[in-house]
Amino acid sequence: MTPTDAVSMPPAAARAYRRLLAAGFRQQSAYLAAAVGGLVANVTFGFLKAAILLATLAAAGGTLGGYDTGRMLAYVWVSQAMLGLINVSGRDVLGERIRTGDIAVDFLRPLDLQLAGLSTHLGTRLFTLLPRGLPTLTIGLLTTGMALPSGPAPYLLGAVSVLLATTLAYLAVYALNMSALWLVEIRGLQVTYMVVASFCCGLYIPVGIFPGWLETLARLTPFPSMLMTPVDVLSGYAVGTDALRLVLAQVAWVVVVGLLGHLLTRAGRRHLEVQGG
Amino acid sequence: MSRTPVVQVSGLTRDFVVRPRGHRLRGRRVRAVHDLSFTVRPGEAVGYIGANGAGKSTTIKMLAGILVPTAGEVRTCGLRPVQDRRALARRIGVVFGQRSQLWWDLPVAESFRILAAIHHLDAAGERARTGELVDRLEMGAYLDTPVRQLSLGQRMRAEVAAALLHSPRLVILDEPTIGLDVLSKQRLREFLIEERREHGTSLMLTTHDMGDVERLCPRVLVIDDGTLAYDGTLSGLSRTVGARRVLVVDLERPTEPLTGIPSTEHLSTQAQGLQQRLAFDPERTTAAAVLAAVSQRSEVRDLAIEEPDIEDVVRRIYAARR
Amino acid sequence: MAEAGTLRGDLTAYRAVLSSRVRAQRAYAASFRLDLVGAALITVVEFAEVWVLFGQVDAIGGLTLASVMLVFGLAEMTFSTADLLVGHCDRMPTYVRAGTLDVFYLRPQPVLAQLMTSDIDLRRVARVAGGMVILVVGLVVSGVRWTPEKVALLAVTIPAAVAIYAGLFIAAAGVQFFLINGAETTNAFVYGGRYAASQPASVWPRSLVLVFGLIFPVAFTGYLPALALLDLPVPFGLPGWTAWLTPVAAVWSWLVALGCWRLGTRHYQGAGG
Q: Do B124 and B65 have their domain in common?
């Protein structure tokens, strides 16, 4: 089953995924204290990012790559608020379960491994918006101020974009970890992923102020769709057809990366059957 | 040998604050060990038994200096475990069944070498002691194998050797035979008996295995809900709770239920009377007497005696106290 | 036993542990080489972040790209050295869960010393080397006018800065005893500190100066020594010799670290709190 034909799944299966989503949500709510820690981290990094980026803007004469002070602050705080949603570490329990052989048990369950993982992931990650994301945004808004778009359209499209970004980020890490079935040792790959993904998704610096050639290069990867796109849509940096085109790119990446993960899962199941776990 | 008790505990109490998940402030005080007092003399071997969560591990951690008591006094080898932890570490050896003190990816021999350095053994002492332990525990075949590749039985022997390398006066073993096969259990028990005979080492062990206690520990402490429920000999313990043994006999031909044998109770009949289980009280009769009585009714093809289950003994003690 | 003998025994033990860790990591040569590449890549990309910003403008917070290389190189090199030596300490929950910590309590060495010497992450060598290369290039292209004092300052700064970061790791380990899932909180200051350390502190608002200049004094690991090496004025109205205070900051960092560690172990043993 690919994510795109998920709509056609039978009600019983849909209920299983719904429950996984709810379980992920509940699991996280038990760790409110940890969420406060995450908030401290988000805000601290937010202040550091804001300081250096605003100093850069000032040195550049007030604007750089289409960002002025208000937009830059919006970038800083929206991206910080979204940090809990995306997994740039490249690591996932899946890789661990492949390493220990527990994956054989997972394959026995009458669930699509990819969709089950995605449901849990969306549940746990979306929950973090409450104790981490929104407070980060609020603190940023109150302490430094930012330019936010008016009118509902950017926010509606932004919400869709956030969901797509979270989904894409998971699907990519899923596919990466699934490759452990063949590669055995994927730590090096995970580190490489972490480094490249966090740079290209615009975690520290908005992709829009990269030097031209580097921006082109980054935009050829799925990574900007994991963070930069929702941030740009929500902050009003990308509007109208620009915004729509960015979101459509996200959809395309979700389909491509999702399909890749799906094929890897199918091949992995066969691989295990042949190898006998 | 010094006459100071190796363990002296009086009024020992330990509370934990249990917080519901996610709540940092709201907490419930739970008493893990309550007003515990006992003494272990040099050279003694003591079985420390009780149900899961009765407070065994908590006591051991307080004896070793890992946990601070909420109230009461502890002296291990005459030292205050927390304050004198480093001096105590040279005098005791502890094996936690579930946690390893070996280096996972190193050969066994290498782990021993590091531990010898940690305990400041001199070269001659190290050679002699390592040789002795390797011999007695029959570890020669896998000394150069990384720990992670050992079977459970092999690893457990290595763990015991690691804890005993510095010739401690007191050895504390937490579930040393859990999960081991019969042969490994036996080898480990024999080793501990020899070690005590040769070096006068004191022994304290927690276990779920009645066989461990029977072979190794003349004295038994039973802990129930953090308090001492019994302190005495193993046979006394069986007497107190009326621990029974079970004789299982395979008979030559189907036989009527074997009721009415003195001091026994017929428990069950299997395979149309071909196999029967009889419980008897070892204080009032013997296995031989029961067997003789059975033989009068039918020829016996095979027999087995089931050991009393430690959980069962503990359960009976607990029941008698309530 | 004589003190000297005891110390020699402990050193033997430490050496045995460390050399065996080294051998164990080298045993998987292929994956170790990949790990080295991965670690070096982290340094490259982190520097790329600095380069993208400073490459767009003449100077940020008074520093040019050439001069910020000194800041970045010093911070990266000293942080990675601390990470190499004691970075494993802030994985406290793993040690607690695996029971390794209880085993440390059963041995006649200080628990903290055992924790620090229980592992060494050789992959970080790549980042230390990366930091060093960037530092040297920075020293050359920024045209430092060398004096004996500057050489001495650099010689004092490097070990003191390593100590500052090591203190951060130890403090994080201590705090994680009583913060459930506390890693994220401590990361804010350990890795946040590392991120802060390659920035010119002159761009910080007051709150950040307080946090990363005084409480977790990472401004002393790169920025302040770099200013002194480049003969640039120190901001915030501070005198020129502020850069020489890095050892003082290191002592402070270790006071905080040992305080946190003591609180943490007391909590673990159930003596306080």
A: yes
Asked whether residue A85 carries a pLDDT value surpassing 50, the answer given is yes
Domain assignments of chain C as residue spans, ordered by start:
3-269
Question: Is residue C56 within 8 angstroms of chain A, CB to CB?
Answer: yes
Structure tokens at B190: 């024999």
Q: Is residue B136 in some structural domain?
A: yes
Q: B222, B239, B256 — which closes off a domain?
A: B239
Lowest mean pLDDT among A56-70, A167-181, A238-252, B305-319: B305-319
Read off the pLDDT of each residue in B185-196 and give the average, rounded to a whole number.
Answer: 92
β-pair partners for B93: B171
Q: Which two tokens stand for residue C268?
A: 């673990």
Please, which residues have CB within 8 angstroms of residue C123's CB and are 6 or more apart in sequence? C25, C32, C35, C36, C38, C39
Nearest CA in chain C to B172: C106
Comparing CA positions, the residue from A143, A153, A115 lying closest to residue A2 is A115
Specify whether B288 is located in the same domain as B195: no
Here the CATH number for the domain that contains residue B268 is 3.30.70
Instruction: Lay out the sheet containing B300-306: strands in order across.
Output: B264-270, B275-280, B245-251, B300-306
Q: Which residues on chain A are in Cβ contact (under 8 Å) with B22? A: 29-33
What's the longest Cα–Cα distance across chain C? 64
ipTM: 0.90
Residue B1 identity (one-letter amino acid): M
- Nearest by CB to C195, which of A45, A185, A192? A45
The answer, yes or no, to whether residue B233 has pLDDT greater than 70, is yes
3-class secondary structure, B215: helix
Closest Cα in chain C to B61: C102
Structure tokens at B203: 């022994």
Residue length of chain A: 277
Distance CA B6, CA B78 (A): 7
Specify whether B170 is located in the same domain as B89. Answer: yes
Of B204, B219, B239, the last residue of a domain is B239
The SS3 call for residue B76 is strand
**What residues in C contact B105, CB-CB < 8 Å?**
24, 27
Reduced to 3 states (helix: H, G, I; strand: E, B; else coil), residue B9 is strand
| pLDDT attached to residue A8 | 55
pLDDT for A2 beyond 50 = no
* DSSP collapsed to 3 states, C208-260: HHHHHHHHCCHHHCCHHHHHHHCCCCCCCCCCHHHHHHHHHHHHHHHHHHHHH
pLDDT category of residue C272 using cuts at 50, 70 and 90: very low
User: Does B99 contact chain A (CB < 8 Å)?
Assistant: no
Which site among C12, C15, C102, C178 would you substitute to test the B interface, given the most B Cβ atoms closer than 10 Å to its Cβ? C102
Strands B202-206 and B45-49: parallel
- DSSP, collapsed to helix, strand or coil, labels residue A142 as helix
Q: Do B101 and C103 touch (CB under 8 A)?
A: yes
Task: Indicate if B127 and B194 belong to the same structural domain.
Answer: yes
Cβ under 8 Å to B: C residues 95-154: 98-100, 102-103, 105-110
Evaluate whether B293 touches B230 at the Cβ level (below 8 Å): no
Tell me if C103 and B100 make a contact (CB, 8 A cut-off).
Answer: yes
CA of B24 to nearest chain A CA: how many angstroms apart? 8
Query: Residue B280's domain spans which residues?
Result: 242-321
Q: Check if A30 contacts B (Cβ < 8 Å).
A: yes
Contacts of C99 in chain B (CB under 8 A): 96, 98-100
Q: Of all residues in chain C, what percent carry a pLDDT higher than 90?
A: 67
Does A34 lie at the interface with B, CB-CB under 8 angstroms? no
Identify the sign of the CA torsion A8, A9, A10, A11.
Answer: negative
The β-bridge relationship of strands B245-251 and B300-306 is: antiparallel
Q: How many helices (H) and strands (E) does chain A have?
A: 13, 0
Q: Can you tell me whether residue A64 is helix, strand or coil?
A: strand
pLDDT value of residue C9: 65
**Residue A47: closest C-alpha in chain C:** C208
Q: What are the chain A neighbours of C183 within 8 Å (beta carbons)? A: 37
